[in-house]
Amino acid sequence: MDLHLKGKRALVTGGTRGIGRAIALGLAAEGCDVAVCARNAEGVKETVAALRAAEVSAYGEALDVSDGTALERFVDRAAALLGGLDILVCNASALASGAGEDDFRRAFEVDLLHTRNACEAALPHLAKSGAGAIVAISSVSGSEDYGYESSAYGAMKAALFFYVKSLARHVAAQGIRVNAVSPGTTLFEDGFWDEVRKNDPETFARNVADNPMKRMARPEEIADMVVFLASARASFVSGANMVVDGTLTVRIPN
Questions:
Q1: pLDDT tens figures, 198-254
Q2: Which of 75, 78, 182, 192 is the most exposed place for a label (fewest CB within 10 A)?
């Protein structure tokens, strides 16, 4: 299936590890030019090199997405260097899984506010595209309770659902689509579940067993959904939350 993405310009926040990196590389494999940001400068450099190896234009910056001014400047620079912007993927997360005030503040600043700030900065560029697409990475934790100890993370991921729906309706007339993707448990090297696997194998095994598929997702399986939603093949899909969890969740959406 031709996704008609060749020559499109994409930006991915938190685009150097795990799901974010898989999204950036997935977009590049379809012919998109890609800009990425993350806090680790070495990770940004390596990811930009990997993107360029896919024979697309690539740009990256090391920054903290909770710095709204720095994020806005990055979006504008990326759009200028890529010659415009067609796709925005907000993937960065604080992974603040506690329930304390600091956990809630960090989750708000990174998971929710960074998404709002990136969208606001990108909207003028996406409006010029004629086929702009935004994908926000949420989580199954936003729709099911996995324990009070993860309430900061879940609360902000749930807030993303409302923001995505509201923004989608607001910008539809500008030819911009907005969707969320909610991954289930996803395993990648040095990621959250890899650390659990190494340090708490019983908890890891229990979480694997909780999924009827008896495994966790690969980052590429999440990325494939994101790439599809960013493409013209999903031209009438907007305001949606796509769950990619291998049947982990039991909630029936309404």
A1: 999 999 999 999 999 999 999 999 999 999 999 999 999 999 999 999 999 998 876
A2: 192
Residue 14: both structure tokens together: 């938190």
Element (H, E) at 107: helix 101-107
CATH 3.40.50.720 fits 9-188+218-239, yes or no: yes
Domain assignments of the chain as residue spans, ordered by start: 9-188+218-239
CB atoms within 10 A of CB 112: 20
Q: Is there a contact between 40 and 64 (Cβ–Cβ < 8 Å)?
A: no
Write the CB contacts of 234 (distance below 8 Å, at least 6 apart in sequence).
133, 177, 179, 228
Cα angle 120-122-127, degrees, rounded to a multiple of 5:
105
DSSP for 38-74, written as a single string: ES-HHHHHHHHHHHHHTTS-EEEEE--TT-HHHHHHH
Whose tokens are 């598929």? That residue is 213
| 0.85 surpassed by pTM | yes
Question: Are the C-beta atoms of residues 141 and 200 closer than 8 Å to each other?
Answer: no
Q: Give the tokens for residue 201.
A: 């194998």
Residues with a known catalytic role: 138-139, 153, 157
Non-local (6+) Cβ contacts of 45 within 8 A are 60
89-130: pLDDT as tens digits: 999 999 998 999 999 999 999 999 999 999 999 999 999 999
Nearest to 5 by CA among 34, 32, 36: 32
Crossing angle of helices 41-53 and 18-29, rounded to 10°: 20
User: If DSSP codes are grouped into helix, strand and coil, which group holds residue 200?
Assistant: coil
